[in-house]
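Entry 12.
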Amino acid sequence: MIAQIANTQLTPEEYLAFEEKSLEKHEYVNGEVYAVEGSTGDHDTISINVAGAINYNLNHHFGISACRVYMADVKARLDVRNCYYYPDLQVTCEAKDLTDKTCKRYPKLIIEILSPSTEAFDRGQKFADYQTLESLEEYVLISANAKRVEVFRRLEGGLWLLQIYQENANTTDAITEAAIELKSIDFNPHSAL
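Predicted 3D structure (C-alpha cells):
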C-alpha cells in the first residue's frame, strides 16, 4: 500500500465500481482507497515459482484439487475489517469462492512477497486484518532480498506460531521448496515423493 488517492470516503460498492474501471490496482481499507505499488522482476519470478509449486502439488500429488491458487490480480475480501487487499498469492478451497471471479472471502493460505516499501505494512496492519478471516490457516511472508520465508500458522485458540525457513550463513544449505511445509494445503513435498 502506498498512499491514499483521495480524501473522499467510498462505500465498498463505490470502490468496486471504481476499481473495475481503473487501469491501476487499489486496495480499500474502511472507506479509504490506496494505490498498489507495481512489482519488480524478482517479485514476479518468486510469485510465479511459488504459485507453480503450490498448484503442481495440489493437482499432481493429491489428484484434482478443489483448492485454487490465485495471484495478485484477485482481491481478498475482509468483511469484518471492511477491507479489500490484493495478496500476492492466495489459496482457497471453499466452493463459495468460485462464484466471484475478482474477490475471495475464504482463503486458507495467503502469501505476501516483501518489498522494502510494503514490508512494515505486510507484517503489521495487513497481517492483523488478515487474522480476522476465520478461514485463514497460514500467512506466509517471503523476502525478495534474502533467502528467508516466514510461515505464521494459526493454532487452537487463535494463537499464531511462527516457523522460519532461511539459508544458514554457516553452511552451504539453501532453502528449497522441498524444505517448506504448508499444513493448510498439505504442501509437504517430502511426504509426496
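Annotation: The chain has a mean pLDDT of 87. The first strand starts at residue 26 and ends at 29.
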